[in-house]
Design goal:
By secondary structure, the protein is α/β, with parallel strands linked by helices. 49% of the residues lie in helices and 15% in strands. A five-stranded parallel beta sheet has the order 2-3-1-4-8, with helices on both faces. A three-stranded antiparallel beta sheet has the order 6-5-7. Bound molecules: adenosine monophosphate.
Length: 216
């Protein structure tokens, strides 16, 4: 089963993708994580992407398409994947279709996670993650059980994404509405688009996604 999670920044795509990995044995393909890894190791792409990410704009289609095309052909994707953060433009969606048809596979579900803009800013500016294992938290909605200690690995160092600030969030939202929202009718016409309420709590959102995936 191959799934695309669509939604604005802060909708919970990464959180839900991680749960779907566990629940269905799928692989999360997060282009944001791939780019952050490239920035961290200071590769050529990482150096180019860093400035763009910090501005809240989109990295070029050429870079993103080649990144996902290399990743999707790896053997761990054979049992299914969840695309988190890709495609984000119509050119990326068209390139994805081509890639998949050459591999003789298809997208089974495109899930749009709908969240109000006001909630997104609060979600994004409050989030942080464990530096050791990457477990995600929120200063208001999802704190570690013991303050300052990761529930998952016991780590005590936490990180915030550099682009998770109020200024960058508004550019990221603008990019979402102008460049990614036009993909919705594209997937609607293909009959694979389902909308869920991303405003619900994390467990309830997972239940909604499960019911979409299991209704097929
Ligand atoms: P995310 O972690 O998905 O919020 O992505 C963080 C940032 O990485 C975005 O604001 C973009 O600058 C960049 N990015 C991630 N995925 C893509 C993509 N598919 N196309 C263009 N830029 C992307």
């Amino acid at each position: 089963m191959n799934v695309i999670l669509l939604g604005p920044p802060g909708a919970g795509k990464g959180t839900q993708a991680k749960r779907l990995e566990e629940l269905y044995g799928l692989v999360q393909l997060s282009t944001g994580d791939m780019l952050r890894a490239a920035v961290k190791c200071e590769s050529k792409i990482g150096r180019q992407a860093k400035v763009i990410i910090e501005r809240g704009e989109l990295v070029s289609d050429e870079i993103m398409i080649s990144m996902i095309s290399n990743r999707i052909q790896k053997s761990d994707c054979i049992n299914g994947f969840i695309l988190d953060g890709f495609p984000r433009t119509t050119a990326q969606a068209a390139a994805l279709d081509l890639m998949l048809s050459e591999m003789n596979i298809q997208i089974d579900h495109v899930i749009e996670m709908k969240v109000d803009d006001g909630a997104l800013v609060e979600r994004i500016t409050g989030r942080f993650s464990c530096a050791a294992c990457g477990a995600g938290y929120h200063e208001k909605f999802d704190k570690p059980a013991t303050a300052g200690v990761c529930n998952n690995c016991g780590g005590f160092e936490f990180l915030r994404r550099e682009d998770d600030n109020e200024e960058t969030v508004s550019s990221r939202l603008e990019a979402y509405y102008s460049q990614t929202v036009p993909l919705l009718p594209y997937y609607e016409e293909q009959g694979v688009l389902r909308k869920i309420n991303g405003m619900a709590d994390i467990d309830e959102v997972t239940r909604q996604i499960e019911s979409v995936l299991e209704a097929a």
